[in-house]
Records
---
Amino acid sequence: MDYLRAFIVGGTICLIGQILMDKTSLTPARILVSFVTAGVILGAIGIYEPIVEYGKAGATVPLPGFGYSLAKGTIKEVEKYGLIGAFTGGIKATSAGIAAAIFFGYIMAIIFNPKAKS
Amino acid sequence: MEHTNEERLKKEFQDMVKKNAPSSNFLKDCLAAFVVGGFICVIGQFVMNFFLGLGVPKEDVGYYVATIMVFLGAFLTGLGVYDNIGKFAGAGSIVPITGFSNSIVAPAMEFKREGFVFGVGAKMFVIAGPVLVYGISSSVIVGIIYYIINLFK
Amino acid sequence: MGEKRIGEQTIAFKNPPSIISTAAIAGPKEGEGPLRDYFDVVLEDDLFGEETWEKAESKMQKEAVRLALEKLKIDEKDIDYIFAGDLLNQLMASSLAVRDYKIPFFGLYGACSTLTESMSLASMAVDGGYADYVIASTSSHFCSAERQFRFPLEHGNQRPPTSQWTVTGAGAAVISSKGNGPYITHVTTGRVVDFGIKDANNMGAAMAPAAADTILRHFKDTGRTNKDYDLIITGDLGKVGMELTLEIVKKQGFDMSTNYSDCGIKVFDLTQQDVHSGGSGCGCSAIVFCGYLYKQIMEGNLNRILLISTGALLSPTSTMQGESIPGIAHAVAIERGV
């Protein structure tokens, strides 16, 4: 059941991205930026939380989930430590993804070379 | 007179371009994005359930999922597979966190030939940098607003 | 007004220079295309034994020049000038390619119009009496163009149907006052035309008005029409840009539908090779002309052609600053006998 929900929720979020890509001339980079920002806003006003509860990985794996984690982490830290939490919370909550991307990016760059497309 | 004539020509031409534009295969694109995007999330769910099964607390499991998914995206990019998935799936492989990883790893690999500092190090964020800038900045704003609202409670 | 000028933008040569030799080198994908048998060399590997895409592109251009000279009885030191260009910043591929030749060098940037731009200037130098042997050469490489203008190769993006595929290839032509053709009889130098297209994934549409403008100007200046040519062929408009050009020219009363084509369509099999709207890049018209068309003229299958290489004069900076894409097109009329 988890899997079916993840599939439907995740697929739908990607579908929205595809519609934006085909119907507007938004570049992938702009779509990523809008999605992460949308995730932060939806997370902050509490709309994304029920989506995560329903779709689990289907909602956290797509980029709005990254935005949601940023917002949720920030709010948690503000509650705990006050204003400084606005600066510490977001990155703390998403630290694993960011550090992994930088580290694995570097490793892959050492190991692999780009290949010509055909 | 000459000027307005030129404007008219431009307008006419732009309409002509719209009329002649080949339509992308919209339904196929959407289906591919939905299926591939959904499938990547299913893999994410599998990873999540796996670590939950190992006894990782629910609030920490996101770290594991993010790390593994980012690794998968990075590795498939390194192997030269992810760009082919992207060609087929479009947003289906751009929007998941594996796509975020791809957008960091692809320039890192590409600009290796310009060296490891100004090539790999500096170019790594040419595509994904804005995601961090806007994501983190907006979360800071959310934090500040939340703090102010709490002051008045 | 110069005595050899006719009309507003055209030169009719008094002593039409001959194209005495050409050479074309194509990448692996181009080597699988319909023109595969016409290229002098087809690369097995996009890196051409080099470490970077840029160096590979440069080596292709250097080899194209060497092969074009090899077919002649003349030596490198007999060459008076080389006019060369490519798509890379500061003309990296051309500058490095000519580094080892001891030939006076003019570097040109006309985006994908560089082939006919260099042929035009080379012909003027020859007909003007400033040179006896001049080389015109250009190159492009899919991988070096992608990383400069678009995305890293491994980035998983989707190409829209209007997008084109930068040709990996280099072509060189030796243009001389001595020789028995094919002759360059006229050149029509294009103006920059910009009809406000901003989509860098639709360069065919951005360049079509420039191509049509130059073709119509050529007809007006020379008094010729499309019926005077066996073939009118643009550089890299692709399917989208080609249809637009046909339509604009038709509105002015010239129906070119029977003898008009585009190098970007000729070089790939559009149904099989996943190149969307067709080929593009400096190398596109370079390998199609230096490989295929030149041989067709030599064998007598074509007697008189009008070659119009087309360029989209955008840069990554201009695109990011929201500028529309200026187009350019230069026409060269080539004839088997005069």
Note: Chain B has one domain: 24-151.
---
Amino acid sequence: MSADTRDGEDGVSEARIRERLDRVTDPELDTSIVELEYIDEIGIDGNEVHVAMTLPTAWCSPAFAWMMATDARDEIERLHGVSEATIELREHMHEREINRGVNKGLSFGEAFPDAEGGVEPVRTELDEKARLARQHDATSALLDAGLDGDQIVALTRDDIMIENDNAHVWLREGAVGVCVDADPLERYVEKAAATGLVDDDHPELFRTPAGEPIGPEAFETVHHRTRAAGVNMSGQGSVCDALHESRRAEDRPPLSSF
Amino acid sequence: MYEYEGEEVFVIDSHLHLWDASEPNITHEGGEQFIQCFYDYHTAFTPEEKQWDLEEYRQYDADRMAGDLFGNAAVDMGIFQPTYLQDFYAEGFNTIGDNAELAERYPERFVLNGRFDPRDGEAGLRELERQKEQYDIEGVKLYTAEWNGDSKGWRLDSEESFRFLEKCAELGIDKIHPHKGPTIRPLNRDAFDVADVDDAATSFPELNFVVEHVGLPRLDDFCWIAAQEPNVYGGLAVAAPMAVHRPRKFGEIMGELLFWLGEDRLLFGSDYALWNPDWLVDVVMNAELTQEQRDEYGVELDIEIKKKIMGENAADLYDIDIEEKKRQFREDAVTKEFGLGDHYGRSATPADD
């Protein structure tokens, strides 16, 4: 909330909008849409903001496109001084339905009456994947800092104290502290919270893919599975990236229309 | 035969198509979207100088295909995997009949797979029997995101599917190749979810399931299923061409696959004409894991393992005797037509050496 108060004093700027958009991820890749260079244009007209974006392919899943467009709208509208954000998704096979739905505040089901199922189960599935990939980064950082698997599986949220860019991890009931980079742990906790694994019935911070505490002897297998989740996600990122590049290539032959 | 640093590598390309997406064959806009989407994948993962233009990509004939496979001796044998898409294409996109044109011209060089769609019910079972009878198929390619009337997909672990898998077991069709891979417009992404392979593979231990495209974008789910189920294999179509522009990523994916499945259950496939083995075989053979990747995964991708992936694993699965094939290929029709005698001649008389 304090950030929003400060926003009001500074006025709406492209830099602050970009900073907001940076929090929106491509849900399949768990990477910021700013970093992925999906943003084409940012327009500011008084209290109104207009963002134009293009995805790697014209046939990116409509559910994914919908998530990115609505998340972008919501992030910008949270900025103090913005009354309305409109999103213009470009060069997408469903740009008409998505732009209309997002800018009129419709639900996914209203925008796509023929779609089977809503967008939330899709988001949950992808959040769970992202949580696993982030768990791999976080637990790898802890392994690098000298912790072992038994120590890692026993950690609870209360054992970790974030201070500026550092995370202090307390072991042996607070008798020993280890300091690591806060970023992978913070990123993990964010997705653990998004998938309902913080404040549930178990105090353990890290979990199996099914969301259960990690049993004795199981750390290594779970660690390997989280590695695979990360490789999958970045592998898919490479596919999207390559498709994006070829779509934008100067000598790309024009496609015929049917 | 492909040669790598003086060593012969017998290549079985386990994923081939002879397709027709010419405009007269397209009956639904999905057919046009489908081929254009394929073309996006083609250009994204093909070296610039090897790219086809869209018109030649729509439809190529058996002669062109034979030249691409055998002209520079990149491939020794191939396995056809049909993709019907009859809701999009009048005569189908790539049917067993289309593929048979080339497979029957050079029967010693090809394995011809069939297909089924459980939504076709009794007629589908009869069609499967026909394919067995007419072509003696040993395998089927399955396309779970295919449209069929109002349906936008089917599951491998459904009751109807199990009826067909039972029929496969009964007919001796024991290689099941479900496509579990990237989204292709306009098909539904989730209809390619690899999760349904798990129960099918457990329920039919007598069948082998070659998961085409290794489950991407659900590689992790695929690896976990394959690690539990010894009758689950990985088909490398789509993963292989990542070696072109994304060699590091290719190495990571191979690291995962070798870590979870080992070296005996991975099959090379070009997905022709998505990608062309005339350059892809060379790219994959020259791909390497970084030292960091070898340390991370504790695996190697050396020449012996590459030989398994490029041909020996498919040969084991399809009961192909590579040495017998090499003798046969010394003077078969392909060797005569493409002047490949030298490729199979050298080991012709080992006793005299």
Note: Residues 96 and 245 of chain B are 33 Å apart (CA to CA).
